[in-house]
Amino acid sequence: MTSATNDQQVTTVQELLFDKRTEANDISLKAMLNADPVLIDVVPALDALPGMTRRTILTSGAPLPWSAYEGGQRRAILGAALFEGLADSFEEADARLTDGDILVRPCHDFGCVGSVTGVTSASMPVLVVEDKVSGSRGHCVLYEGGARERLTYGVWNEAVHRQLVWIKDVLGPILSAALRYGGGVRVSPIIRRALGMGDDLHSRNTAATAVLFQQLYGPILDAEGSSGAAREVLDFLSRNDLFFLHVAMATGKSIADAAVGTPHSSIVTAMALNEREFAIRTAGTGKRWFRAPIPPLRAKYFDGITAEDTAFMGGESLITETVGLGGLSAAAAFSLQDYSGGSAESMVETTLAMYGITHTEHPQWRIPSLAFRGAPFGIDAARVASTSVTPRIHMGAALRGGGHAGAGLLIAPVEPFLEALEALDAQAATAP
User: Which residues constitute the domain of residue 228?
Assistant: First the structure.
């Protein structure tokens, strides 16, 4: 067989793989773009998440053995065990986790996403966002509030405990009653409006939270009256600009999961961190994670804090970038420039670069500074692999000892995208 014949056969195989991937990506993108996500309820995780048990604690990122968790992510898991009454001390909780009496599992395997440590336990109320087209659901715990010390940021103390109890006993039930009374809230129109008002829907959610507040104000009062608890909830929503972030996260999960399981598709359906690794999933590789060490976060810290004071604790708010928001839509949120590249011009450059690794533009979510061009949508592992341009991600920074430290820009490593593409090519080459 001649060299020319070999080259021709290789070219033919590459063309077939490309054709399979192109068709599969079209299917994935259609499912994601057709999604109509609606915030329908707030329900305890035990009742909302398929497979959830009282002895299960969910956390961010690709799974690790219990012995590998340390620092803030470990403290948050231990705190959740105490919150659920599964142990009376960190030492007892650690022993039960070591023995497997308490299970640690990845949020994404339960249709859920979590912020920073991502810890989600049975009694914690979760937002339920349902895609009315595919039926896919995404879930996320409620935002804890603006205090720097939160379970989300690896802190467990009496103040954190009190806040989690209030969220479970007051905030969750009142929001549930309001959403059921009002018939739910369509999320995509809020995202569209918020992008036009300066949000990126990851590090900045000021406009989106305000619009959601407008839509929930009446149903909360209609369902609960002007009780003290209702006023507490309204006050909490009015004071916490980042409340909508967790709605956006559950929304991103419901949209991305609509594409999961599409054979041969290289569209990214999840990006997440545990405290050690950045990891991705694609539509064509299902629940398999492709991992790499986390690169440094380019962050702006609160006064008195330096990079040496910080550590990664996980995070799944990257689901917003997965569906074209956050760092991919940096050009929509110039007020974040100190945290994202240092200037408005660099934020525009970031978003323009993201069009090169995505398949299309969102037809409704538009960016005013780019002449209302649609947000870059549908990250393609194949395009990342061919260009070595990786997703830009807006995210918070955590203190090594626990607590919120600031925010910044993470440039994803390329290795997981390369490995995902290799797996997809191997899968396609053996398929009939």
Answer: 35-250
